[in-house]
Amino acid sequence: MALLEVRDLRTSFKTDDGIVRAVDGVSFTVDRNQTLGIVGESGCGKSVTSLTIMGLNNPRNATSSGQAVFDGEDLLAATPARLRELRGMKIAMIFQDPMTSLNPVKSIGWQLVEAVLLHNDISKKEARDRALNALVEVGIPRAEKRIDDYPHQFSGGMRQRVMIAMALINEPDLLIADEPTTALDVTTQAQILELMRELQEEHGTAIIMITHDLGVVAEIADDVVVMYAGRVIEEAPVHQIYTAPRHPYTWGLLGSLPRMDLETDRLVQVPGQPPSLLNPPAGCRFNPRCSYTMNRCRAEMPELRPSPQSSDHNDACFLDDATKTRECERLLAGTRAGAA
Amino acid sequence: MSDDLLVVEHLQKYFPITQGIIFQRQVAAVQAVDDVSFTVRRGETLGVVGESGCGKSTMARCIARLLDPTGGKIIFDGLDITKLSRTEMRPVRREMMMVFQDPYASLNARKRVGFIVGEPLEVHGIGTDAERKRRVQELLEIVGLNPEHYNRFPHEFSGGQRQRIGVARALAANPKLIICDEPVSALDVSVQAQILNLLKDLQREFGLTYLFIAHDLNVVRHISDRVLVMYLGKVAEVGKGRVLYDEPKHPYTGALLSAVPIPNPELGRRRKAIMLEGDVPNPINPPSGCRFHPRCPRHVPGTCDVNEPALRSYADGHEAACHFPLERWPMTVEEIRRPADAVVAP
Question: What dihedral do alpha carbons A319, A325, A327, A331 form, nearest 10°?
């Protein structure tokens, strides 16, 4: 059984301008020892999906439906007290900006010990030992000295390591990482990704990696979910997303990526910008920007359907299989020609 | 007319750190840019890459004279502009425009788009009111916006459209050089591709020269003819895009290239990133010798931490500042650790 199974998740926010359907029918599963990459542009609902799973939306204006079954327990139906128990113990989260997620007036040792003591009935001394071990494990040099330092005394990459230490200190089953490397330089990013890979190997943690960067997903994910305007438009094992993408939006994303390994003169351009979720377009939400739009796309919303070649590759597009294969070949031929 | 539009010689920018309340004395300096020299040829794009804090933005601001350089020379279109006063600088600014990173912060929220784009024309006294309005509408069309949006405010536009407004403003006075400081870093990939294509089209159409600063090596490779790699205020390596990316000489360039995620799971996972230890050191007290030596997998004690490497020339205008340049590329981490022409203790 999958560790986390999300079924038909929907979240909407009440705003002054109307109801924003940020997440509109999202389903996916994550297994132990697996990394699921969720990719999409800003405003596609990838962060809201994770916040809904964690029960972190503001209850005043957010309403959610659907199911998120974690280890046999529906998180959406869980009481706030139960969620508090799970968060930090069984499910942990890392955010993009480590400075805003660490308390600036407490030492990192204090914050790590707090995370341990909240969930475990052990002495302060033992908790501190665990905190120290966690810091050593994420590669903080001179951890026994630095444990009493404050967040501002660490660099960006080191702060993100502290966040990872804090997330993993209680050995959670699931780690949700929301753009964990976006604020970091490439060399630091490589360090953090390597660290996450190592820790997963050691502890078998399931990871949900939320990012806009298709390069990062290629490096770390086993399965990929591509989101657009609050819906999943394609899901597949990682190599299939890159070698046999089937949705026009995925083609656009891959084609619009400048790549140093290829010589391209012009990038593929997806015209326009992501739609407002206050008033999304009728039918397929990608239809106003899609160059393959048919009448049917404007009237009906396409559902995820498996591809004839592979049952674990799903896409939500009405195009016939022959066209998809042909167009995808054309896109990849362009990248191959460039590489030659 | 010389081939070089911009020549930068030994550019230096130190920010003083002072102590004391009444009698301020300088106790140290942040050596943000230290002895940087390069040229930008007419009609080309020079890309500048480096990690945060390496001095690339400070350098751009010095060239645009938004900051006063501590030392060195900036020669723009044959004219030494290093010491020009504000009034003397004014006609030069017409020829040299800037596009900034944050399309939200760089447009005045209280002014209409027509005013924002037309302001450079007004400042430099170009044309009559009617001519300016026509020119602004033409510019909006060139950058792919609806000319009828002349009277709208910036908040009515999305991030990508705002960046187009920024580009239109930079184009207004027909400049020769446009300095782009991370112009696409804040944008989503699909919008980023639109802006990159636009910049390329404009360059072809108007013969523009770009100094393009970014931290994303993929973006820089795509847009640049030549690329300059900076590390801690110094030039580490400079060369033609293809040469520098295919045969990097400086270990720092190699480390950067190996760390960039490639959107190709097979290729990306086969190679092994060259991990650099730690973070970029403090520019107040930069390391002795080669500034990269404390993090360099190749560093040879006794040489790298003592002597500062000068830029050495290789084929095709390729230059790198390293005592033990990479012999080939790609290299494994083990190979990198053993420079061929150095005696290393086992």
Answer: 140
DSSP state of A87: B
Candidates B164, B182, B190, B252, partner chain A, best to mutate (most A CBs within 10 A): B190
B282-307 per-residue burial string, b: 16 or more CB within 10 A, e: under 16? ebeebbebbbbbbbbbbbbeebbeee
ipTM, interface predicted TM-score of the complex: 0.86
Q: What is the pTM of this model?
A: 0.90
Which DSSP category does B110 fall into? T
Chain B CA closest to residue A181: B261
Residue numbers in B near A239 (CB within 8 A): 265-266
- Phi first, then psi: give them for residue B297, nearest 5 degrees: -70, -15
Q: Which of A187, A193, A268 to mutate to test the interface with B (most CBs of B within 10 A)?
A: A187
With H, G, I as helix, E, B as strand and everything else as coil, classify residue A123.
Answer: coil
* A230-244, A293-307, B270-284: segment of lowest average pLDDT: B270-284
Q: How many CB pairs under 8 A join A and B?
A: 131
Q: Are B58 and B13 in contact (CB under 8 A)?
A: yes
| Secondary structure letter of residue B263 according to DSSP | S
If one counts every other C-beta atom within 10 angstroms of the C-beta of residue A25, the result is: 17
Read off the pLDDT band of B328 (50, 70, 90): confident
Question: Measuring CA to CA, which residue among A203, A208, A135 is closest to residue A175?
Answer: A208
CA distances from A100 to A92, A163, B60, B191, B288 (A): 16, 11, 30, 27, 35
**Chain A (28-57) residues lying within 8 Å, Cβ to Cβ, of chain B:** 41-42
Structure confidence at residue A336 (pLDDT): 59
Q: Which of B115, B327, B95 is nearest to B206 (CA)?
A: B95
Chain B CB within 8 Å of residue A340 CB: no
Total H helices, total E strands in chain A: 13, 12
| Structure tokens that stand for A63 in this block | 């309403």
